[in-house]
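ESCALATION

Customer reports they have been waiting on this structure for their group meeting. Please prioritize. Original submission:
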Amino acid sequence: MTETLPLSEAGGVPEEQSPTVTHGVAAGLSPVVVRLGWVSFFTDAASEMLYPLIPIFLTVTLGAPVVALGLVEGLADGVASGLKAVAGVIADRFRHHKRLVAAGYGLSALSKPLLALAPNWGVVAGLRVSDRIGKGVRGVPRDVMIDEVTAPEQRGRAFGFHRAMDTAGAVVGPLVALAALTLIGKDRLRPVFLIAIVPGLASLLLIRTLPESTRPVDTPDRSHVALPWRSRFGWLIVVLVVFGLGNSSDAFLLLRAKNLGLSASQVILAYALYNLVYAAVSLPAGIRADRIGRGRVFGAGLAVFALVYAGFGLIHHSSRELVWPLMAVYGVYMALTDGVGRALALDYVPAEARGRALGVTQAVTGLSVLVAGVTAGLLWDHVSPATPFLVGAVLGGSAAVLLAASTWAGRDRAARPEV
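Update from on-call: job pushed to the front of the queue and completed.
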């Protein structure tokens, strides 16, 4: 696999005929996409070492109420989402995406191991917000870098590859956490948090190898180009809001698994299974979306989400073994929507507005998840642990119907790029 990036003498930007990887699952993709994939692999390995432990750490180790979990995760995602909108404007205006990418990954790498020192859930909330600020700063410029070195007809493949690499890290992370708990004791969660600094530093070293910019030197300020709200893009935003209001943090799925009788180690393994399926299906889903239309694949993912959430709402302690297939199918939902959704949003806007389009869609999604997280915590505490999932199933199904309606109305024709 060649990794050499010939750069133009004018400004260090990849030449028009930039090299691509010629073999393996990344065939046809720019080395920039491949490197960013590895950056995300190591970062997610660090994140997902901790993520399945945080619900247990908060509610058991620190004794916080379940509503605090919804507040912590919702607040973290909400802050990140607001920053994504700002990062989108910056990404359209300036050329040097690498600086934002490095700052975002650096902040996250520092925040994770500090969880080991948290004395109460308020400190955990602050560190989670800090971690997600890093995510909010880096996500949009990173995705713009991917899109700028990718042909439109390859968008699904490029984002699918990136999500596959990201999620492969999410498979490794929980397994490392499980091994650590086996060695040091299943109730000693704090030392596991310290280990997360290793993959975090690896991602920062890889960022140093990226080009300073992937945009042509003479590119003007793009921030004045308006987003096409009265079009398919506006319809997509409506769908994302409806869906996001029912899509509470994945931490609730893990807490539900614990509530149904799985041990802490089993919860970690179930989460690793989810990520394994997510990683395995992401690239095929992106390739399929390039061929049949991204709107169709994204809509199928929303329908799968509704079925999984209905399952988590309906199963009981006596049928807790169903958690395993449900977590696996949940991985299929993520593969059908995460990378494909980013490519779909870019299909609906001009190239000059791609940063803001990604920022707005991710901000809307995250802010909806903030509301959903707090609501899910209240429903869990005051109604039943099953209720948040039943509500999510209804809203997820409604979003799928809305997206299908846009397709029937002829609003989804841009989902398949022109070739």
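Sent to customer with the following note: The radius of gyration is 20 Å.
Escalation resolved.
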